[in-house]
Specification:
The complex is a heterodimer. Chain A is 0% helix and 54% strand. Chain A is mostly beta strands. The chains are: A mainly beta, B mainly beta. Chains A and B meet through strand 5, strand 9 and strand 10 of A and strand 4, strand 5, strand 9 and strand 10 of B.
Chain lengths: 114, 114
């Protein structure tokens, strides 16, 4: 039973345009959400996070939006660059447990075409 | 060092053999986390340590899996009597705190059980 879902296995975007990666969750008690980026043969790299008390967090070209009523978050990358091509994982902090215990989605592979 | 060092990068074991994976956290990081990624799917949390003490072991299989973090030694994850379904990439991460956004992941150890 997946608690964090990334329903799009892949996404292709033209360089310079906006990339929107989506993530849905089922547990309304999740209190912290994160996005990780992963290149082949490397470990995931932390990208951006958002607390459940906020609805938006921005860091340079990356913005995460949280819609708690819909149990949905999205990562916007604008403008997209070829170096952004990677697999993006959404993760949620497990409620009631240690904050280090994350529940991950299956990832979305982003391809940014020059 | 400034990276989480995981060894070996690849490990092949016959069914029933023992597998031992190592992780050297970033110097100064007191938290270590182990995750399992099967077939490029979501990461499954296994166990975390605060220094040499188990912090959260809720994801650890009850049988065959064990882990340690001893002073002045790399942390280790050991699988006794490996099974085909143990084939996965095992990622280690370290952090200065238990908060999720402080993670730095290693590049992983790919375990193949044949």
């Amino acid at each position: 039973d997946q608690q964090v879902k990334q329903n799009s296995p892949s996404l292709s975007v033209q360089e310079g345009r906006i990339s929107i990666l989506n993530c849905d969750y089922t547990n309304s008690m999740f209190d912290y959400f994160l996005w990780y980026k992963k290149y082949p043969a490397e470990g995931p790299t932390f990208l951006i996070s958002i607390s459940s008390i906020k609805d938006k967090n921005e860091d340079g070209r990356f913005t995460v939006f949280l819609n708690k009523s819909a149990k949905h978050l999205s990562l916007h990358i604008v403008p997209s660059q070829p170096g952004d091509s990677a697999v993006y994982f959404c993760a949620a902090s497990r409620p009631g447990g240690s904050q280090g215990n994350l529940i991950f989605g299956k990832g979305t592979k982003l391809s940014v075409k020059p | 060092g400034e990276e989480v060092a995981q060894t070996p990068k690849h490990l092949v074991r016959g069914e029933g053999q023992k597998a031992k994976l190592y992780c050297a956290p970033i110097k100064g990081h007191s938290y270590v986390f182990w995750y399992q990624q099967v077939l490029k799917n979501e990461f499954k949390f296994l166990i975390s340590f605060q220094n040499e003490n188990v912090f959260d072991e809720t994801g650890m299989p009850k049988e065959r899996f064990s882990a340690k973090c001893l002073p002045n030694s790399p942390c280790s994850l050991e699988i006794q009597a490996t099974k085909l379904e143990d084939s996965a990439v095992y990622f280690c991460a370290s952090s200065q705190s238990s908060l999720s956004y402080g993670y730095t992941f290693g590049s992983g150890t790919r375990l193949t059980v044949v």
